[in-house]
Write a structure and sequence with these properties.
globular, seven-stranded mixed sheet, 123 residues, four-stranded antiparallel sheet, 1 helix, mainly beta, single chain
Length: 123
Amino acid sequence: VQLQASGGGSVQAGGSLRLSCRTARRTSSNNGVGWFRQAPGKEREFVSAIGWRGTSTIYGDSMKGRSTISRDITTNTVYLQMDSLRPEDTAVYYCAVARGPTATSEPRNYNYWGQGTQVTVSS
C-alpha cells in the first residue's frame, strides 16, 4: 500500500499551503480519501474527505470555509488547499484511504494511512 503525503511546511498566519496525497491506483481508485490532522497532545481530528468520483466532499468544522479538497483521478492524487491559515492549524496532516467509495469523517472507516506531513503556522 502506498500513500505519500506532501506539501507541508512553515508559513505565517494568513498564508496558504496545498497538501498532496499520492496513492497507488489499486488502493484508491474506487475509494474515498480523507485528510486528518493531529497536534501535539491533542486527539486526531477530521479535516476533509472526498468521494471516489470527486463530486462529493465533506469538511470538518476546524477548516470549513478555509480549505478545499479535490482529486485528480488520472494521477490518483488528492489535494487539500488550505487558506487563511492560523497558528492553531499547526499539526501533522495525514491522508487516508477509506474502505468504501464515499467521503467519511470517521477514522474507523479508513484502513490505509499515510506517514503525515508537518504544517507549522506562525503568528
